[in-house]
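batch job 7 of whatever, protein = mannose-1-phosphate guanylyltransferase
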Amino acid sequence: MITGVIMAGGKGERFWPKSRIKMPKQFLNLYGDKTMIQQTVDRLRRIMPVENIFVVTNMDYAGIISEQIPDLPTENILIEPMAKNTAACIGLAALHTERLDKESIMVVVPSDHVIKDEETYIEILKTAIEKAKAGDNLVTIGIKPTRPETGYGYIKFRKMTKEIVNGNPVHKVEKFVEKPGYELAIKYVESGDYLWNSGMFIWKTSSILRAIEKYMPELHKALENIRENLDSEDIERVLYEEYSKLESISIDYGVMEKAKNVYVVPGDFGWDDVGSWTSIERLYEKDENGNVIRGNVVSVDTKKCIITGGEKLIATLGIEDVVIVDTEDALLICSKDKVQNVKEILKELKEKKSEYL
C-alpha cells in the first residue's frame, strides 16, 4: 500500500502581505489554477486514493484544508498541538499510516512547492517507491541544480553507486550539507556531485519508525505513548504533553544525516520551493523590461520589478529591482535584495499587536 503525507503547518511569512497567519501560502493560488495544497493533493492522487493521504497541520488550518480538499476524510487531517519541525510531524503521521498497513510506503511531501513537469515527477516518484519497497531504505528526491542557489540545502551523492530502477538512476547519499555561501554553491553545482534537497521523502512506515527509534530516542518514546492513546479520550492531552517535551528538529538533522541506508533519486521536473517573492520570477514570463507583472499595472521606465495586485491600478515610474505586492488592506514595497527579510516587517507588526499579520 502507498500512503501520502503532506506537511502543511508552515506560516509562509516571506509571502506577506498575500500570506497571512490565517491564510498562509500553501492555501493560496501563486501558480496555476489551484491552490498549492490542492495541486499537491492532485499529484498524489495519481498514485494513491485520497483515503490514503494524510495532511499534518495545526488547529488553525484544519477548516481551510476541509474546504479546499472536501473529499479528504476528516480523520486524515492530523492536528499537531504545536510546531516541532518535520521529525515530529513525520513521526506522528507514521503512527497513522502504520494503522493502514505497517509496511505501507510513505510518500512525504511539503504542501507548498511548484512542480511544472508532473509526468516526469510521477516517474521519479515511482522509482523512489520501488527503491523504498526493495528493503530498509530511506529514499529522498534530489533536484538537479540549475544555478548556485544559497537558499537550499544540498545532498552529496556517490556517482559510483548508481543503480537503475524503473529506468532512473538511484544513488547512495554521501552526506547532507547546509545552505552554502555563494562561492561554495558555485563549486557544488560545477562538481556535478550535488543535488538540491527537495524535502521529499519515501520509505516504508516501519523503516522510518525504526530509524527514529535508533537515532531519536526521545521522539520514539513520545510516539510510543501517543500510539497507546490514539483511540482514547485523552489523546489531545497526551499529544500536548508529549509535544511539549520534544525538541524542535528536522527529519534531515534527526535521522537522514545520521542514517547509513539513505538513497537519492535525481530529478529534473521544474521544481521550485517558492520561498519568497523573487521566486515568482522563475514561474512567470517576464516582459521586455524584465518585469513580472500580475494585475492592473501601468509601468513606465520600470525594469526588473515584480508587481502583483488586483483590480486597483498600480502605476510605476522610474524604478528598478523592486517588489510591489498590493492586497485589499496592505501594500508591500521592497527592494529585491531585501525580500528575504520580509519577516522583519512581521516582527514589527507583532510588537505593535497589529491586525495585519
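notes: The chain has two domains: 2-272, 277-352.
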